[in-house]
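Lab notebook, bench 4. Still working through the backlog of constructs that have no structural model yet. Next entry is a single chain of 478 residues. Request: give me the structure tokens for it.
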Amino acid sequence: MRGLWITFCGLAALLAVAFQVETAQVRYLDADELEHLNAAWLVSKGGTLYEDVFENHPPLMALLLQPIVRSAAGPEAMVHSARGAMLALALATLVVVGWIAARLGGLACTASAVLLLATHTFFFQKGLEVRPDVPALLLIAVALALLALRPGAMSWLAAGALLGLAALFTPKVVYVGAGAALGSAVAGSIAAERGRFAAAMRALGWIALGGGIVAGIAALAMARDGILGGFVSDVLGTSLRMRIDDASAFRVHYLLTTLRANPAMWALALFGVIAASRVRDRVAPTSTWVLGASLAAGVVGLFLIQAPMRQYFLTFLVPVACFGALGAVRIVAWSASVRRGAGALVLAAVVAAVLVPPALELRRDAGTMQDQLGILTKVLELTGPEDRVFDCWTGLYLTRRPASRHFYLNTDVQRLLGPGALEAEVLPALRNPEVRLVISDEDCGHLPSSIQSYVQQEFAPVPGWPFLLLRRPAAPEP
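Model written out:
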């Protein structure tokens, strides 16, 4: 039975991974991806984050992408190489999740955990995109593995450092990181025969020290490069003030989406949490507390974060997959013990329930990047290497310089700046003759009327490309 299970789940997981590998090179580009690629390219050309390049994300993503943006033969190659790098990190996360699950319930649990995570719709969609959440997820997974499987001073220290590095990709990890630290403290307290409070504080202290060392080194490096003040202003200040439209609606929408697309995973995870809390002979209390507290903190964070988008779910999918795998193991084992042959039927039903709903959901996510790459190619044809492009939120001008410091002006950033600040920055930038092209997207329609009027006056639509506006020739001097 166990061999059948491992084979069945393993083949299904391989199928899901193969589909993700194929999808990574054709699926449409999210605007966030182009934001990160543009920021990295600007840095590679001498731009300075947080000074002449606005960026409300920590700096490690731009640093991670440097080898790709510096070596790629062109924008299309840059996109494919970056997607490939993200996919490699996502696959590495599956390996780490398999390692954690193996310690919880053996190879059957490993195969189940890898299958559950690989088929989670949000992991499939966002795990192949060029975004800081992907390397952060791998760092979270390794940190959880250390805390859950190898508790001790050095593991606590290393896990704290890994969580600190993850936060330098995206601050979203703070909730899961805090939960994992708290779970480690509780587990350390329970394991101690005496001095339980001191044991809990020791675990917290080592984790905090690891994170503090990384934060200190990062602060010194940014101070050396003269960007620490800009980091505080752009990342910390902006993150606290930036809001999306109707965060509650997005929160409900994505919760309902994942419950519809991955009902088996969430149901199995709930059962796995119950099983882990009741069975002590196979699941170590440390693992239960670390994974359980990180999952709980991640869910709590979902109701506190002001940008509850799909990528936030990635931060706590590792414990969900592990508990879900444990739940699957318990259910199939129980059914096999009740009636001969029932285990195989239940296993087939579980795999079908895991695979079918996300497959149906992903069909709604169809679309390729070809049209976007066509626009990007046209933008490069219309502009030269020294020209600048004004764009709000398409990002389809890779290897061209933006018009101003705010190289992306989606509605969230526009709301943050306000009409006055937008006019003060954008209008002088547009008057620069180096700005040769405007990409007029939906977000441009939310700019102040003075900016829209100037664009209509000074730029004309390109024949056949009405959303690309080329600067009108200067009027001849009398």
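Notes after review: The chain has a mean pLDDT of 92. DSSP finds 20 helices and five strands in the chain. Flag for follow-up if needed.
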